[in-house]
Structures are given as C-alpha cells and as structure tokens.
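So, could you explain the following?
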Amino acid sequence: MEERSNMKQSQIKVGSVSDYLYTLMTQTKSKKFRAGFFKKDGEYRKGKFDLLNRKTWKQTDGTMYQRKGKKRTTNADEYILAHDLDKKAPRNISIKRLKWFSVGKKVYEINHLQLNETTTLTMFEKVKFSNLKKLLSGDFSTLKVINLSNIPDITKGDNNE
C-alpha cells in the first residue's frame, strides 16, 4: 500500500512568473497591495504598494519629484515596479526574494524551487487572512516548508529507468 498523505494536487501554469503575479495583483477592485520581501542586504521589508506608473509624486519631505524620462533599468520578468505608499517613492521588488503578498482579503505565500539554471518552480498558495499580522511582523512560522525529498528530479529526463 502506497502512502500518499503528503500528495497535493495543484494547478500548473507554464510561463512568466511576473505575468501571473501581475494578474493576481490586479484581478480585484483593490488598487493597493501589501508585500513582504527580503532586500539585497538580507533585511526583511514589508509595506503597502500600488502598481500605478507615476510621472510625478510628492515625497515625504513635501517636495514634488518628477521622473527624468529615462527607460526602466530593471528586467520586468525579475522585478515588480511598484510605488511605495509609506515612503512615497518607486521600488523594485525582486520576484525571487518576494515571500508573500496580499490583495484585498486574499493572502498568498510564495515559494521558489530552483530546479536547474533555466528552470524555477514558483508556488503561490493562499493562506488564511488571519495570518497577515504574523507575516507583517516577520513571523514566517505560518509559511509551509517544502519537503524536497519527495520531489522527483525532472531535470534528468525520463525517470522510468
């Protein structure tokens, strides 16, 4: 008798993670979202953001800032260009370092699994809205740990040998 208690059926979508993430963030009426991610230096950062592309905005010191008209310098498949509503400035949020986000009453945790140099498996899982307070404080005990021992190596071709 095989034990399949750890198995879970999931929907798989092949394509760009940034496109799917943008779809999840814009499918509700809410224009704002919250996100938690790690910065390049390893510091945990969370905040309120929106996806509006602003030409001018008011900074925290009260002065107005205007974009210089230059093109985006980051890859749209690797970074989300969002406007930080707390610090009132644009932010590039790395998709690889994004841990969770919430839109409206929906909270999603994000897990990344690097299969090889060209393939990354990214999992979006809904969690209870009551976990949002823990995620905002940096408590990741509610996030599930991925058990890699049960995942077959699909990068080496046929596993029926």
